């Protein structure tokens, strides 16, 4: 297993969750970005793990106060406008709720 293995991305993402909880938002952002880059390359942009990392990155960007960045993160050109889960999957509600929070704060 090398530094760009999806398992490494999961570990980095978990560390980012801890950093975010501790208030190190810049550290969390860097970790989520790294995890997302690894997983997108290894699994493709529409994989459920990628969507989860997009969701996490979007929320830390929102916490950092940059509302335009999470909007781009959630709906960037390489991402599907809807999560890769079935419409009734519980993660869909979380993903859409977080996007709606950002859009509401942007007044859209």
Describe, in plain words, how this protein is organized in 3D.
The chain is an all-alpha fold and 108 residues long. The chain has one domain: Serine Threonine Protein Phosphatase 5, Tetratricopeptide repeat. It is 69% helix and 0% strand. The chain is built from five helices and no strands. It has helices spanning 6-21, 25-43, 48-63, 68-75, 90-105. α1 (6-21) runs antiparallel to α2, α2 runs antiparallel to α3 (48-63) and α3 (48-63) packs antiparallel against α4 (68-75). The chain is globular and about 45 Å long.
Give the structure's gist in a few sentences:
This protein has about 110 residues and is mainly α. The protein has helices at about 5-20, 25-45, 50-65, 70-75, 90-105. The termini are far apart.
Secondary structure layout:
Layout: H1 6-21, H2 25-43, H3 48-63, H4 68-75, H5 90-105
Helix pairs in contact: 1-2, 2-3, 3-4, 3-5
Principal-axis shape: globular
**pLDDT < 50 stretches:** none
Q: Helix and strand string, N-terminal first?
A: HHHHH
Distance between the termini: 43 Å
Number of distinct helices = 5
The protein's oligomeric status is: single chain
Helix content estimate: 55-70%
List keywords for this structure.
mainly alpha, 108 residues, single chain, Serine Threonine Protein Phosphatase 5, Tetratricopeptide repeat, 0% strand
């Amino acid at each position: 297993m090398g530094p760009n293995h999806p398992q490494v991305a999961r570990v980095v993402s978990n560390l980012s969750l801890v950093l975010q909880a501790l208030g190190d938002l810049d550290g969390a952002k860097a970790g989520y970005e790294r995890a997302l880059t690894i997983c997108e390359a290894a699994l493709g942009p529409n994989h459920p793990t990628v969507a989860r990392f997009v969701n996490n990155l979007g929320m830390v960007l929102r916490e950092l106060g940059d509302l335009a960045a999470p909007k781009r993160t959630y709906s960037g050109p390489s991402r599907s406008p809807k999560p890769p889960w079935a419409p009734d999957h519980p993660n869909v509600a979380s993903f859409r709720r977080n996007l709606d929070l950002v859009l509401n704060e942007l007044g859209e």
